[in-house]
Amino acid sequence: MIKNITLAAAIGFTLVSCGDKLAPVREDAVKPAVVTQPTPHDTDDPSIWINPEDASKSYIVGTDKDTDGGLYMYDLEGKIVKKSVTLKRPNNVDIAYGLMVAGKKTDIAVTTERETNRIRVFSLPELEPIDNGGIEVFEGETERDPMGISLYTQTKDSVTAIYAIVGRKSGPSGSYLWQYRLNGNDNGIVTANVVRKFGNYSGNKEIEAIAVDNELGVVYYSDEGKGIRKYNASPEGGNEELAFFGQDGFKQDHEGIAIYKATDSTGYILISNQQANTFMVYPREGVNGNPNEYKLLAEVPTSTIECDGADATSVNLGGKFPKGMFVAMSNGMTFHYYDWNTIQKVIDENKKQ
Predict the structure, then answer these.
(1) What digits encode the pLDDT tens for the residues 198-253?
(2) N vs C: which end of the chain shows fewer Cβ within 10 Å?
(3) 45, 84, 265, 314 from 259: Cα distances, Å
């Protein structure tokens, strides 16, 4: 990860170092509607919180990855409006709605805290910790180092449960990911218990990017340098791998995953082709009537440099984002916000070819 790229370089379509290679940001790259204020250290992963009362007052919560890092909250103009307590290398973050805590439905942001081997839980939009200092993960394992996280909300028999699916720097194939049920107690503290261990792993690099599709009940994760794996998100759904796609066309690492939901069952899965500075786009619903068969629809060049994490929403946020937003991390300690219409235009142009 390169941390000293200036904001001008980040959106100026220049060449930047990628290890011992040069990664060009293409001249035809989609330009962001907004670039956020920079954080002190190293942005990694964003998640979008939709304000239930006024979507135009929604926020983006992103990680600043360092020993004295934290979660940063941005408004839709990219201004930092709040910072969490100091965290020891927060990696990825995800958001869920309506966890019962002290008898009240509470929206939450959950991030991995790598140097303490914990996940941290914060109330939204207050961005206040409600975890009594954090929840230990991968207890008893030699390899811990939590990195990726995604939250799954399951409603069954009128009971809503929220789960955290957590990945780590390294681990055995078959149980690389651990799934925790989050529980809010009457004292306002969130705890968690392990309900499942699953997930194949190639052993090539690591698994960091994880994304859950609540409506379809599935989870995707990037096996870096190999492809995207798909499983049932429900702990009762079994541990059989449903799909392993995107194994071709990536320059090097498969990274951040964002899901754009056009309807309850259709839309797009966008995967960061990190060293190419593009996103690979697949149909959310699959192809040929098979929800587990995926065909590359488009490759979208973006202004982001070596993007780790991304998120998307189809909710009308008003202003610059009438059809929703795609947000992605970029070197230069920033996040880039894109009007979904600009992403859709590139997808549509690719489809016609």
Answers:
(1) 999 999 999 999 999 999 999 999 999 999 999 999 999 999 999 999 999 999 99
(2) C
(3) 14, 26, 11, 9
Query: Look-up: residue for tokens 């690389």?
Result: 176
Q: How many whole angstroms separate alpha carbon 327 and alpha carbon 337? A: 5
pTM attached to this predicted model:
0.93
Cβ–Cβ under 8 Å, residues 148 and 199? no
The helix or strand, by DSSP H or E, that contains position 182, with its residue range, turns out to be strand 177-184
341 sits in which H/E element: helix 340-352
Query: Under 8 Å CB-to-CB from 38, ≥6 apart: which residues?
Result: 7, 332, 333, 334
Question: pLDDT for 294-311, tens place per residue?
Answer: 999 999 999 999 999 999
Lookup result for tokens 């549509």:
348
Side chain identity at 144, as an amino acid letter? Answer: R
Q: What are phi and psi of 274, to 5 degrees?
A: -55, -55
Structure tokens at 167: 């990945």
Best CA proximity match to 208, nearest among 109, 303, 93, 118 = 93
Domains of the chain, CATH where assigned: 7-352 (2.120.10.30)
